[in-house]
Write a structure and sequence with these properties.
Keywords: DNA-binding, Transcription, Transcription regulation. This protein has helices spanning 11-19, 24-31, 38-44, 50-62, 84-110, and strands spanning 36-37, 66-71, 77-82. It is mainly α. The radius of gyration is 16 Å and the shape is globular.
Amino acid sequence: MPEKCAVFVSGLDASIDVVGGKWKVLILWALGGGSKRFGELRRAVAGVSEKVLAQHLRELERDEVVHRAVHEAVPPKVEYSLTPSGATLIEALRPLAAWGCEHKTRLEEIRGGAVCVDVG
């Protein structure tokens, strides 16, 4: 059965659909530093399982914000990088990251000592 197409009512819901979930923004942020292999991404995004990372990478590739390059080698070498669209998405996320850096201490206080991990 074909995948159901999303109908977006605004640019905001289209954007949130692409980056939604716990891990996608962190995956994109890690790729903002340059191409990475799967294992490098797994280490860069602490706590993500292999299954979830693979699923999110497929979704980000489907949405054309991540490029998957397979290099002829034994064993096969696969690298992930941002597409031009993904690079513009990183630029859109920078103000959100700045807001988080500015407010994370207060968020930790009001949430009872929740731990925030700085992603850059």
